[in-house]
Amino acid sequence: MRAVIQRVSHANVTIGGQIKGAIARGLAVLLAVEDADTAEDIEWLSGKIVRLRIFDDDHGVMNRSVQEVGGDILLISQFTLFASTKKGNRPSYSRSAKPEFAVPLYEQFLARLTQDFGKTIPTGEFGAQMIVSLANDGPVTIIIDSKQRE
What we know:
This protein is an alpha+beta fold. It is about 20% helix and about 35% strand. Helix 1 packs across helix 2 (about 100-115).
């Protein structure tokens, strides 16, 4: 699994002109699933996101998690995070899992993230044409890949 995590002052996702999910301060998380992902990837990545200390403490140091600051999480599926541009100019998405595998894992990830976070997480809609709007606070953007645990 690969996630792009952005610290935001607000974010929302719109589908067909209607806001599907929105948050104020918190994390906008773009998530891609690949065929090699397992329950272990779900557990590890969910815990990492919930505990990621990228919010400022009283001294202006990034030392607090989204839970500690009372923030929210917006989760958006985005298969293009596994794009390969190695050959030519048209990206290949062959590393991204097909919907029949990706949807159940995405739903399992959402369930685990909701459990770890302790409150409802608004989402987009898997496979839908979405417009994501956000105000990146900082800016702070972190890329995490469950297969490259750096």
